Amino acid sequence: MSAVRNIRMLVRYNKWANNMLLDAIAQLPSNEVTKQRAAAFGGMSFALAHIVIVDQIWQAHLLGQDHGFKSRTTELPDSLSLLSEKLKETGDWYIQYADSMTELLLNEMVQFSFVDGGAGEMTRGDILMHICNHKAFHRGHIGDMFYQSGYRPPSIDLPVYLRDGFKEVGLTQNIVLNDNIKTN
Q1: Mapping DSSP to helix (H, G, I), strand (E, B) and coil, where does residue 180 land?
Q2: 148-182 b/e (C-beta count within 10 Å ≥ 16 → b)
Q3: Quick one: pLDDT at residue 168?
Q4: CA dihedral 164, 165, 170, 175 (to 10 degrees)
Q5: Which of 73, 105, 109, 145 has the fewest CB atoms inside 10 Å of its own CB, making it the most exposed?
Q6: Is the separation of the CB atoms in 42 and 119 below 8 Å?
């Protein structure tokens, strides 16, 4: 398995898992989504807002642009529909970006400044791995909030995605993923 194939699969998994989670959240009573909790970031909408902000920060780093954020959190998250729209947009962007990567590009170093200060440097591949891991981490927090609310979160583990959503063509290092992959 190549790093290119794995990155492409993981960004698709992230979009699929986000969409599954967003669909389940949309079925909850709205007060459960906005409810303040003793949980990561204080509630579901705050955790989703954090994910969106961090996705936008790393997208800007990959593009060599200023992101303009002074914090990785917000005191007033956007509506669920706007957060969903932003997550879907960045999900699509990360898929397109990953599809443009080669082994050489994945190993290219990117220099950036952390939001809280200090210089950073990571490879493009490491950044893509981080954004995938970051979302999985916080989807776990949101899943716990489902249980706190008396609801069951969707089953969004990687093996479920591999069974239900991911299709690949070819096993070469320069794998091309077909257009029929479910990315929503």
Answers
A1: coil
A2: ebeeebbebeeeebeeebbeeeeeeeebebeeebe
A3: 59
A4: -150
A5: 109
A6: no
DSSP structure class, residue 62: H
Q: Which residues pair with 121 in a beta bridge?
A: 111
CATH number assigned to the domain covering 3-164: 1.20.120.450
- pLDDT of 184 over the 60 cut: no
**Phi, psi angle pair for 111, to nearest 5°:** -100, 145
pLDDT (mean) for 20-35? 94
> Per-residue b/e over 65-104, b at no fewer than 16 CB within 10 Å?
eebeeeeeeeeebeebeebbebbbebbebbbebbeebeee
- pTM score of the predicted model: 0.86
pLDDT digits over 118-164, tens only?
999 999 999 999 999 999 999 999 999 999 999 999 999 999 998 88
Strand partners, 112: 120
Token pair belonging to 52: 């969106």
CB atoms within 10 A of CB 29: 10
Residues 40-69 pLDDT 10s: 788 999 999 999 999 999 999 999 998 888
